[in-house]
Amino acid sequence: MEKKDVVKKRNPENCMQNSAASLPHAPSSVFPTHAAGKKRKPCLRKILAFWILMAVLGGAGGWIYQTWQKIPSSIRIRAGEEQELFLDVPVSGTIYGEKTAQKDVIPVNLNRPLTVQASQIQDYTMDVKLFGIVPFKQVDVHVVEGQRLIPAGVPVGIYIKTEGILVIAESDFEGLDHSRKEPARYLLRAGDYILKVDGVELEGKKQFTEQVAASEGKELCLTICRDGQTFDVTVTPQQNTEGVYKLGIWIRDNAQGVGTMTYLDEKNGFGALGHGINDTDTADLMEVQSGSLYKTKIVNIRKGISGTPGELTGVIDYKKENRIGAISINSVEGIFGTLSQEEADEIQGEALPVGLKQEVKKGEAQILSCLEEDGAPQLYTIEIKALHLDHDNINRGIEIQVTDERLLEKTGGIVQGMSGSPILQNGKIIGAVTHVFVNDPTRGYGIFIENMLSH
């Protein structure tokens, strides 16, 4: 009984007060009272509500962006044919032409299959609204003639000569007095094209190097093309330790390599690569003065593995008799030009209709590529995994994965040199292979054929 009288229940609040009393200098915030806890709960609710709102807005923003990408900025429709357009997006609007009367404005709803037909070549505009309310996007609609192309799939050797001399880097060098010399510092930069020296057009880097060496240290007037703008700069060459006059720049006037021809049209015009030829140092699209296609033979295949892309190795003999075509255009969509009649006659295969981007479907497709020395192009099975109708990078509109065991055995998937291999689906030519995933060589990207034809 006495023990029970001694041991008494203690009030938790008293414990708190006693503890606080033992530390008279402790700030009251260290030991919050019940009232302070009540004040903190509304603050936590506000923070939680804020983050929930941010998550909702982020999700909504992502959905809107994906919806935007599902709607191409431009759509092509073949004249005289009924075609189905189904984008499965919650937008509706109208289609009208430049001279369309109000009564001829056509309502559209892209949330369900839409059958369209145009009888003549003409351009239209489609204005669409999200949920039929919020102005969302303007789409250019082009009515075009139906076109047929012969899928090529043959390897070609490529040689291009730049428009002028390309500056790929600045550098310094040791002068006669053993000090560092930088004659072109702040005057020239990587990506510049040197077109003329003292008003004389350049034919190649050898000529340019000789003119600089023969300058005897006198000022040279260089005509430069930079970002599409042409202007003159003056620069004074200086001697290196061997007494040779230099400017302190690295230059290039050509590029070469192996790729695949995508198609041949009825006028012997060809398209190849599906992407442009960029300088390896500046990463800029090279401005082409002239170029040639040459016969090539595939002599080796390095299989691709995760982290290391594979490669087709071809032998190119740059003899005149091996030249099979002329390159006239180097653009982001590929390289284009004209094939010789003799070589065009050797391209076998039936001309196929062009598949427009809205006709391309996810699922099985084929690529046409040649992997054997003196062999004919073969069809290999792939799967289209995703479609990006309005991708910022037009060379990556089609996402593909190699499924053909023969191709996987030979190459491991997509390898360098296969760029330009035509992609076929449902009896139509729909695109060309352009890129490989570095970490998964079985997967890669392709460009829509209509984008190649728009160059």
TrEMBL record:
Peptidase S55 domain location: 229-455
Superkingdom of origin: Bacteria
PROSITE patterns in the record: SPOIVB
EC number: 3.4.21.116
Segments forming a coiled coil: none
Transmembrane segments: 48-68
Keywords carried by this UniProt record: Hydrolase, Membrane, Transmembrane, Transmembrane helix
Molecular functions per Gene Ontology: hydrolase activity
Ranges of biased composition (kind: Basic and acidic residues): 1-12
Name of the top EC class for this enzyme: hydrolase
Annotated region (Disordered), positions in chain: 1-21
Protein's UniProt name: SpoIVB peptidase
Gene: spoIVB
